[in-house]
Amino acid sequence: MPIKTFGLKDLAEKIYRRSGIDYNNSLSNLESKIANRLEELGLSCWEYCGYLEIEPEEWNVLFELITINETYFFREENLLKEFKEVVLPIYSNRTPQNPLRIWSAACSTGEEPYTLGMLIEDCGLFEEGAVHIIASDINKKVLRKAENGIYSKKSLSFRRMPDDAYEKFFDDLGEDYKVKDSIMNMVQFRNINLMDESIIRDLGKFDIIFCRNVLIYFDTLAIKSIIQSFYNALDNRGYLFLGHAETINGINDNFKTIYTPSVFYYVKGA
């Protein structure tokens, strides 16, 4: 086996142990993502594995290269409709002293948590300060973009935007749109590795967790660990929303699946 392949396998294993992201069966994909960085540093893949040990900040660069940040506003309309019309009214008695707590895990550049904020503002059930959204990602670069709340009008982030949402939820900056302050103020961004159970415990309890279109990048063992962390982080009868192609049936039987004609999602402890 070529030395280069040995180096890739070692790197894939390091990535897996660090983040749960599984490239062990797609080494060529991993190689293409890091090729320019290796050339920039003048290192072989094998040497790069050692470089990560002596330069731990390089992990941030690596995660920027290997994570997939495909997202957009109002993604999966039917699921969001269920969230707005069925789930949010359950928590309509929440106040700034006892806020509704939502976690948008693996939020990428922020379109999902801001969309949740828009739906919350639009439903009119909550006073200012009665909803807290924690939005997290392992990639620090995308978090910096998310914190700015500014998106180019040419961005694919707007591919599914309702026509009336631009004026209601954004300020027009000319070539860009900026999320309105009333929505941005609901959201706090955090750099979080979903495999870091201690950091997740420190976040406290949540009523609702969104983690959509993320688990497909993990193997079964990592998924079990992440779902258990979500279970521990949710209050009793808290809700978990995954992507339309993701299921935890057979992964964690402590969640009950809620089926509707168009979507399914999960509730803890029912």
Sum this structure up briefly.
The protein is of the alpha/beta class and 270 residues long. Helix content is 42%, strand content 19%. The protein folds into two domains: 3-66, Chemotaxis Receptor Methyltransferase Cher, domain 1 (Orthogonal Bundle), CATH 1.10.155; 77-268, Vaccinia Virus protein VP39 (Rossmann fold), CATH 3.40.50.
Q: Layout of helices and strands, plus pairs?
A:
Layout (H helix, E strand, L loop, with lengths): L2 H17 L7 H15 L3 H10 L3 H9 L10 H11 L12 E5 L6 H13 L7 E7 L2 H9 L1 E3 L12 H5 E3 L3 E4 L1 H4 L2 E5 L5 H6 L3 E6 L8 H14 E9 L12 E5 L4 E5 L2
Parallel strand pairs: 1-2, 1-7, 2-6, 7-8
Antiparallel strand pairs: 3-5, 4-5, 8-10, 9-10
